[in-house]
Amino acid sequence: MSRHGVIDEIAQGCLMGRARMLARVLTGIYDDAMRPFGIKASQLNLLVVVAQLGPIRRIDIGRTIHLDSSTLTRNLQVMLANDWIEETASAEDGRGRPLRVTAQGRALLQKLSGAWKDAQRKARKLLGTDGEAMLLDLSSGLPRPDAP
Amino acid sequence: MSRHGVIDEIAQGCLMGRARMLARVLTGIYDDAMRPFGIKASQLNLLVVVAQLGPIRRIDIGRTIHLDSSTLTRNLQVMLANDWIEETASAEDGRGRPLRVTAQGRALLQKLSGAWKDAQRKARKLLGTDGEAMLLDLSSGLPRPDAP
DNA sequence: GAGAAGATATTGCATATGCAAGTTTCAGAG
DNA sequence: CTCTGAAACTTGCATATGCAATATCTTCTC
Fold first, then answer.
1. Within an 8 Å CB–CB cutoff, is residue A132 touching chain B?
2. A95: Cβ under 7 Å from strand D?
3. Fewer Cβ within 10 Å of end Cβ, chain A: N or C?
4. How is domain B11-137 classified at the architecture level of CATH?
5. A94 touches chain B (CB under 8 A)
6. Looking at beta carbons, which residues of chain A come within 8 Å of B42?
7. CATH class name, domain A15-139
8. Which distant-in-sequence residues (6+ apart) come within 8 Å of B141 by Cβ?
9. 3-state secondary structure of B101
């Protein structure tokens, strides 16, 4: 242990650092599980949001899972190209072109659900019951980005 | 709530999704705090690891904070260019060129420590005492990527 | 109905992340 | 001493992420 208080404090205690590390480790687990299906774990998470809440606008997806709109524009492009999701309204809509899951997207979700459960099991084992509960609780408690 | 079990289960319960979301929210808090200092929060976390454990090789940084080597190659380049860190050994080292913090890097750490503490306070407030303890605990309990 | 105000989406720029493949360098076998 | 294998690093490719600025479309006001 070094004698530089600030450095140690940040290195050991930074909540962001810990959260990012945890996210990296978990992402690895789920990405491994999803690889056979040609979908990244982060894309799966977007897909289930659209499947559950769609038709839903990008901005509302962002509010739900704390993602920037510009990130969504790009991440969703890949998913649109893969025909997992589609835009609902015609181009003349303008402000907001809500997205929904396609039949293919829904089928994919069914196909990979077993693999996802395996990954979830592994993650659960890694975190322990307490950890799992706390993580779910923590993320539920996050204040929604100001809705109008 | 929809009637599609799998979708709801993943949307609500995916530990990876929650962890990534939490990481995004926290990253926002610390990035805001670090912006005046011209350093990203993720870079700060790398910097403190080097400051605390340096001279340290990329691979060992990776093992410590669960980061891929290729990611480190690139992320550290920016920090080398900013003269926050430097390579220690002369070119004849070969396998492994350990990194250490520079005087400038150390000075930067001192300068931003107050702002970091503010961010940490905000994060703590957001997560609560329980959440904080659990997050620190969780991330400490992660199995070290196999050391030789 | 034209123009202002506001919301939504996209684009440019920079960084973060990881896999697979390739490179460099060291250490040990013979 | 040379060859070979392992370890550390780098590069190519693809995706993820967010800020600032811009574009687009809606609605409200006059």
1. yes
2. yes
3. C
4. Orthogonal Bundle (1.10)
5. no
6. 20
7. mainly alpha
8. A126, A127, A128, A131
9. strand
